[in-house]
Structures are given as C-alpha cells and as structure tokens.
Specification:
Number of helices: 16
Helix content: 25-40%
Bound molecules: 6-O-phosphono-beta-D-glucopyranose
Order of helices and strands: EHHHHEHHEHHEHHEEHHHEEEEHEHEEEH
Number of domains: 1
Structural class: alpha/beta
Strand content: 5-15%
CATH architecture: Alpha-Beta Barrel
Largest sheet: 8 strands, parallel, barrel
CATH topology: TIM Barrel
Strand order of the largest sheet: 1-2-3-4-5-7-11-12
Length: 497
C-alpha cells in the first residue's frame, strides 16, 4: 500500500505579518513615529520599481511629520490589526494555526527609541495579543525589528549608523524578553538584515542626504555591523532571560540561476548567491566570511569595530535560520541588449523563460523553494524556518462576500509539495512554515493594499477606504484542511470546503 505523505509531527503551520504593515493605530496607545509611518506610497508611479519607493530624503521625512495623512502613508492604517486583533486571531485559530509570526513595533514600547522607561500601554497591547494567542494554543514567533526603528533614532542619531543605537536596542530587547518570557519562545532579531543594502531607510534608518561626502557603502555596512553585534547581544539576552528560547536570523532568500550554462553566467550566479549568503554566514558562523572581507577591501568599504565585537558575534550565533522565499531570478555576466527583465523581491533581474510570473512580475518557482532549503541546510546544518512565502495578487470580493483565489491555492499547493520533498527526500530539518501576509496588509515595496497575500480578505483599498471587514477567501478553507491533515490532503484529489 502506498504510504500517505505528510509533514513531520509537530510541524508549525501558520502565517506571518509585521506590525508596520498590519497594525495601524500609528498614533494610538502612546506609540511614537517609526520610519515606516513616514514611508510614502507612490500610487502614481510604476509600482514594480521598488527603488522609487525606498529613496527617502530628509525633506520627505519633514513632509511626513507635518501631516496626519493616511492615504499616502498607508502603513499608518495597515489592516487595522490594532483594533481587530481578537477577530483576526480567532480567524487564524479557525484555520488551525499552530504559530503566528508577528513583530513588535519598537516605537510602541519605546516611542523615541531612547526613552528612559517603556510605554506601559504598548507593553500591555502585545500582552493582550499574546494572551489571545494562548487562548487558542497558537505559538507566537516574534520579530524584534521589522522595518520599525523609531524615527527619533534617525533624526537624533542617524539610525543604525550610530553605535549608541545598539544600547537602545539592548534595552528594548531586555524589556520585551522580561515582559513576555512566559509567552514567547521563538524570536527573530532583524527581519531581512540584508535588506539594509536595498532599502537602507526602512531597515537601518539611514537617510542618504545625511551622509553627504561619505562613502555610502561603508555607511550601510557600518549600520549592518551594528545590527550584527546587536543581534548577537539580543540572542544572549533572550537565552539568559528565557531558558529554552530559540533565536533565529532572517534572510531574504533571493535565488539566482545562471541564465545560460556559460561558465561566466554560472560564476555570476555564484557571486550573486554569495552576496545573499554573506549576511546569514555572518550570523550563523559568528564572523564575517572571507569573501565579504575581500569585498570590503576591493570596494574600499571601511567599518569601525570595537575590540569586543568579534568575540560577541562569535559567542552568540543564532539557533536557527529563517528566511523569506517568493521567487527566483536569472543572472548573466553580460546582459545582452533587449534581454527581458522582471521584478522580484526588491530586485530587478533577468526573466526566466521557463516559469510564470505574478501580477507584479515576481517569478513563480516552487522548485526554487526546494533548492533554497537544500542550499541553506547544507550550508548551515541548523534547523530552518520558512517565515515568509506567498503570492501577492489582485483579489476580487464578490457581492456574496466570497473571494475565489484558485491561483493562490495553486501557488501554495506547489510550494508545499516541494517543501515536503526537501524535508523527506533531501533530509532538511524545517521547524515550520508561516505564509506571508496571512491576512491582507499593506505591501512593503509598493505600499499597496491591493497587492494581497492573505487567506483573509480585508475590505480596504489602496487609499485606505473601506469597511476593514474581514472575509474568508477560498484559500482560507483550503489552508485549514492542509493544517488539519498536516499536508496529507495535498496528495488527495478533493478537499473539504
Ligand atoms: C519581505 C518583507 O521581503 O517581503 C515583507 O519582509 C514584505 O515586509 C514581503 O511585505 C513581500 O513584499 P511586498 O513588497 O510584496 O510587500
């Protein structure tokens, strides 16, 4: 008899969000401004060009601070989880979630980042969220910093460029670990620490015009160095305060294929993969890889380290490796004129002619997920956690309140099968899976609400208009069945709705 295929016992199925994209309530509960509250949307420009959305100037910040507008600053309203969290968690529970990945907005706890004492209202808000999760036995997986540095740290200290910010972060981590020690076992330090390269403002609070005359790459790597040290210290604090806790790094898993089998293209793909891995290499092995040190030397990147930094990074590496995976792309040593290119997660690269693309041009490649899992596990031999994956698509809410999203079901179905292949056939250890934006939220790169990832539809448009009522999409029922059967239903023809 054929054996039934399913995921390992205890596999943590769930979904993921981030405070800056889902929460809203930007001025409530004593919250201070974060960098994301001042990230303007550009609904009027080509939304596949992520660069346009992430170049923030001092003038942009001043304009943002002078207005209460929520239309062009959509992260200020998000999906209004701040007021809907009970309902949202009940819906997650209905799907059978075992885990919910969320972030704590640093500026809700320390509104200015450098405050003497934490904001009790903010602490209480997340305690309420964790209590709600506990009611349904949903394990929280908490990102300490997901594009949410308090704005004051940008204005007063130049964000993560300043060493002082490490100390503020330590205090924040100590505060949340102490307060939530009975609630949270799984933690991530910085979301996509590597994204400092691609969007230095939201990740590191770096505003380019504040560093005039300075070597920009050195500024970025200095800020990243501070985050590496802060991440190691956060791991220590977490382990000290919460015995048995597990702390992970979080990497944007960009997966590059050589466009042809020309050795030059293969080499280019290898080089590009290394520029993805260099960050997790640092956080897992606790030291800068030789090829990153060489890059510093060759590009004239100079960073300042304190004498104790190397030892701190070495002593407190991460316990597991988490990552986001959405798509793959191709690269070539020389891009011939007219070669077709397409968008990916904050990149723009050569289009793979063998695979389809999403409405936003991101190429859909389930086998790429298996390839990514194998590469990461072989490289690090640490448990993996897939903490972001999913399809941003345009959904339609029908008059009867239904949302038919077979494209999303197909996307997940194919990715889950490859995930299981990686676990069963390739021997990869994977703790769990949280789909990105399990409830519709504001997109990071385009700031659109209409780029929907959720199993739960939120009735709000790109201008923040709508009832914010929640609706179950078809994929909601499908995912519920996947969780209930621990993936066995993926191999049956029918599923219960
Ligand atoms: C990840 C980020 O890189 O991609 C999320 O951690 C983001 O914050 C997600 O939302 C999807 O990207 P986008 O641009 O479609 O929102």
């Amino acid at each position: 008899m054929e054996q039934i295929r399913k995921f390992p016992e205890g596999f943590l199925w769930g979904g993921a969000t981030a405070a800056n994209q889902v929460e809203g309530g930007w001025k409530e509960g004593g919250k201070g401004l974060s960098v994301s509250d001042c990230a303007r949307s550009h609904l009027d420009v080509d939304v596949t060009d992520y660069q346009k959305h992430n170049e923030i100037t001092t003038k942009d910040i001043e304009e943002a601070m002078a207005t209460d507008d929520e239309v062009y600053y959509p992260k200020r309203h998000g999906a209004d989880f701040f007021h809907h969290y009970k309902e949202d968690i009940a819906l997650m529970a209905e799907m059978g979630f075992k885990v919910y990945r969320m972030s704590i907005a640093w500026s809700r706890i320390f509104p200015n980042g450098d405050d003497e004492t934490p904001n009790e209202e903010g602490l209480q808000f997340y305690e309420n969220v964790f209590n709600e999760l506990k009611k349904y036995n949903i394990e929280p997986l908490v990102t300490m910093s997901h594009y949410e540095p308090p704005l004051n740290l940008v204005l007063k200290y130049n964000g993560w460029y300043s060493r002082e910010v490490i100390g503020f972060f330590e205090k924040y981590v100590e505060t949340i670990c102490t307060r939530y020690k009975n609630h949270v076992k799984y933690w991530l330090t910085f979301n996509e620490v590597d994204s400092m390269i691609r969007h230095p403002y939201t990740t590191g609070g770096l505003v380019r015009d504040r560093f005039e005359g300075m070597h920009w790459e050195s500024v970025i790597f200095q800020a990243m160095h501070h985050q590496f040290v802060a991440s190691a210290l956060a791991t220590k604090i977490c382990h000290d305060i919460i015995p048995g806790s597990m702390v992970g790094c979080m990497l944007t898993k960009l997966t590059f294929y050589p466009y042809t089998c020309k050795p030059e293209d293969v080499l280019q793909a290898q080089q590009d993969m290394r520029s993805t891995y260099c960050y997790s290499d640092t956080q897992v092995f606790g030291e800068y890889p030789a090829y990153l040190v060489a890059r510093f030397k060759n590009n004239g990147v100079v960073i300042h380290k304190e004498p104790e930094d190397d030892a701190i990074m070495k002593k407190y590496p991460v316990d597991f490796v988490s990552f986001s995976y959405y798509s793959s792309s191709c690269v070539a040593a020389k891009e011939d004129e007219g070669i077709e290119k397409t968008a990916g997660n904050t990149i723009f690269a050569i289009k793979n002619p063998h695979i389809p693309s999403s409405d936003w041009g991101w190429q859909i490649d389930p086998i790429g997920l298996r390839i990514s899992m194998v590469d990461l596990y072989d490289r690090y031999r640490k448990p993996l956690f897939i903490v972001e994956n999913g399809l941003g698509a345009k959904d339609v809410l029908e008059a009867d309140g239904k949302v038919h999203d077979p494209y999303r079901i197909n996307y997940f179905d194919a990715h889950f099968k490859e995930m299981l292949n990686a676990i069963e056939i390739d021997g990869v250890e994977c703790l769990g899976y949280t789909s990105w934006g399990c409830i519709d939220l504001v997109s990071e790169s385009t700031k659109q609400m209409s780029k929907r990832y959720g199993f739960i539809y939120v009735d709000a448009d790109d201008y923040g208009k709508g009832t914010y009522d929640r609706y179950r999409k078809d994929s909601f029922y499908w995912y519920k069945n996947v969780i209930k059967t621990n993936g066995a239903c993926l191999f049956e023809d029918e599923f219960d709705k």
